[in-house]
Amino acid sequence: MQGAPHAFRVAQQERGKKTHNGRTVSPFPAPPILATAPDWPYLTLRAALHARDGVRGLHTLTLADAQAWWGCSDRTAKRQLSRLHASGRLVYTPGRGRGNTSRVAFAGALEGELAALTAHLAGVGAAADLARLSRLGFPRAWVLTDAVRGTFGLGVGPAGTDRLRTVVTRPLTSLDPLTVNSAAEAHLLTQVLDPLLVFDPLARTLRPHLAHHWSTPDGGRSWVFHLRKGVQFHHGRTLDAQDVLFTLERMRRGAPWYLGGVLDVREIAPFTMHVTLDRPDLFFPRRLAHEQALILPRDVPFNERRPVGTGAFRWHALDGGFRLEAFDAHFAGRPLIDEVEVFLVPELRGDAPSSLDVSGVPDDPVESWVPENSVHFLIWNAHRPAARSAALRAAVVEMHDIRAFWQESGRAERLLPATSFLPRCSLNRPPRGHSLARAQALLARAAYAGPPLRVWVLDLPGARQEADWLAARAARLGLPMQVVPAPLDALPDAGDDVDLAFMGEIAGWDEHLSFWSALKQPELLFRRLLPADVLRDVDALLDGYRMAPDAAALEALMTCVEARLLGGHHLHLTHHRVKRRAVHPLIRDVHPDAYGRIDFKRLWLGDVRP
């Protein structure tokens, strides 16, 4: 990257002899360039050439290359190359004739330029530029320096502002409450928007939030919610029953799966709502404590780039990220920290350590490894011909022995095989045995003669490794598989050319509601890929949630649903992620919970120095 003082030197005979666009141009006419604002076209070009060629002083280049890397037209690419040549950042020698290869020379050492640039950006606190720089794909050690790490984490901003600068390591998916399907995005939304009720995971019960009281006069067929008075939205207006009416009607139109059974929603007083259901449902208030039911203002069109709510933080867009600014008027009390800035940084690959610990914090002992409340699984696409063979489905389950994969791949993380969607249940159930001999016999019974099974997997190193391992094991038994990597924001659908998919789900604080919503939400894989008869049986069982009197009854229903899902081998649970309490190496002085979430509302600076 650029920004270090240029030490470009070329042989004397090369000076002043280059002809470009019909005029003579000195190769390096400009004085040394100091580390100031990043020149992003230059940095993008140098990152792409380094990724392709490694460390070199001279690279070949076509205009098609430059167009692709810059995402621009042929004419714009020529102009950028001319500008960079004239400014002395590089020597550009056009190829002779249309389509011929050109040459680009860099005399300055890339690592040195990056060191100077990152030091400068860190010195002025240019977190957005540093995050953008890290996304260009330069070697990790050249960008994530100690100076850069010091820019992130807890610190004091301008005018004494207490600030957390943190990162996300993948593109954000939906930030609409109706379609949010990721734990990280849901967590962000709850910083900005509030629900009527909240679930207390310790007491395992509901608590008041925007609604200070609620009741059912008829055993669960109708519900009355009394709202707090004086609750302000970020744009200044006060919350009333019409906002709740607007939100619930929006849900009925946009996410009917979530509010199924609602016959009528009406205002009976400025701060009182009445909801009528088609039949009693004691689980209904729990659904109003979920991310799908976050309350929106009726007079502000919803915008994922700047959601407006009553939450503890206001949302502001930033270049390469966003800022959460403490909302002084939040009804439950102002956050202790003033602002949180979040920047997009790419997932670390290849040279990333297996565990990412807080910089400067000693390694945790073994006992700190804790299971995340999530599950990883392998699911068949029931709409594909291969999935119709029960013997083939069972054979793949026999082949996918997660303990064998862990041992053969030398994985450093702790392993918790999954026998349930929830790790606390898996801990009490012994893992099933696997047998390649049984797999071979099942394959013989299946007599599958179709094309290679296409196995969909997120394009992440660990996930790819697991899928490649399964494909290699299947090939040894005569079953061809083709691994199909997919981007992080993609999900396979019923009509896709995919037979199997690796995926994972993370539960929220309300485990029973998370289980229910994962199986009901149409955006997730269960609704997309499971057979219709399995989904009918699952829906019938989940309908029992309506009249479940307590957590024990909900637990029993969940166990029955799991048995139906796993019994036909359409779904194979593999493992629960076991992780340390660790964060991205750009972040210091911050410790997330086992979900990987940071409680922004309770963060405070303490004795941390800027």
TrEMBL record:
Residues annotated as signal peptide: none
Gene3D superfamilies xref list: Dipeptide-binding Protein, Domain 3, Periplasmic binding protein-like II
One GO MF term attached to the UniProt entry: peptide transmembrane transporter activity
Annotated spans, Disordered: 1-30
Single biological process term from Gene Ontology: peptide transport
One of the Pfam families matching this protein, by short name: SBP_bac_5
InterPro entries registered for this protein in UniProt: SBP_5, SBP_5_dom
Domain Solute-binding protein family: 206-519
Name by which UniProt lists this protein: SgrR family transcriptional regulator
Organism: Deinococcus xianganensis
